[in-house]
Amino acid sequence: MITRRNAIKSISLGAGLFLTSSAAKGQVSKKESQFSFCLNTSTIMGQNPGLLGYLEIAAKAGYDGVELWIRDIQAFLEAGNSMASLRKHLNDSGLKFENAIGFAPWMVDDDQKRKAGFEQMEKEMDMLAELGCKRVAAPAAGVTGHLDLFKAGERYRELLNLGRKTGVMPQLEFWGAFPYFNHLGQVLMVAAVANDPEARVLPDVYHLYRGGSGYDGLKMLNGNLIEVFHMNDFIDTIPREKQEDKDRVYPGDGAAPIKQILTDLKDMGGEKVLSLELFNQDYWKQDALQVARLGLTKMKKLVAEI
Q: Model-level pTM?
C-alpha cells in the first residue's frame, strides 16, 4: 500500500528528474557559435605568390575559406585574365570566398569624394558578387579629420542599402592606430545609428588592443553582429601606442587573452569566420605554405581548448 509520505516522495523525485532533464536539454540546445577557418592573404603577402598562389596555398594548408584583397583581384584581371576563369579557380579550390579587403572612401565628409567612394564600392561589390563573395570590409578609409559618428551611421545605412542591392554586405571595420575611428565603442555607435538589422562589425584582436578597446566589450554583443573576426596576437614588449601591424604574431604566441576572446565569441552564438590576418615581416621571409599551416594549426588548437 502506498502511504501518503511515499506518494509525496515519488512526486518530488519525479519533479526533480523533470527539472534536471529540462536543464540538461537547455544546455544541449544552447546555440553556441560555429567556427570556420579562413586565411587573409596579407599573412603571406610578402612572399608574393600571386592570386592563384594564394588560393593554392590556402587550400593545401586546409583552410575553409579565404579573404582576398580587391587590389589583387584587379591586378589579376588587368593581366588579361577573366572573371570566369577566377570564379572557376575559386570553385576548384574548394575554398569559400568569405570576405574581401578594400579601401573605398565611402565615409568621408567631402561630398564629391564620398560620391566617388560609393561608386567605387558599388563597382567592387558587383565584381565580388560575380565571384560568389557576399561580404566586403568597410573601414573609414580616406577620413582625415574629426568624424561625426551620427553622420557616419547614416552613411553606413546607405552603404548597407547598396549591399542589399548588389548582394555583398559591408562589414564595418575599425583600425586601432587610426586616429579617427579606432575604438569598439565608436564602431558600435555607428552601427547603432545605422539602425539596420543587417549591420555587421569586423573586429580584430590586434586592433581591439591597439585602439584601447580591450576585450570585455565583446561580452555585450549579439552573435549576429560579428560574422568575421580577424585572428592574430600582440606582444607585450612594445608599448600599446607604438605597436604596428608588422608586430602582430600568431594567435596564442602573444599576450592577448585569446581563449577568453574565443569563449566570448562562442557564447554569443552565430556562425563565425576566424580569419588569420598577419603582416609579420619575419613570417614573410618563410615558406608561405608552412606559415599558413602553422597559423591554422594554432587557431584550431586554441578553439579546441575552449
A: 0.90
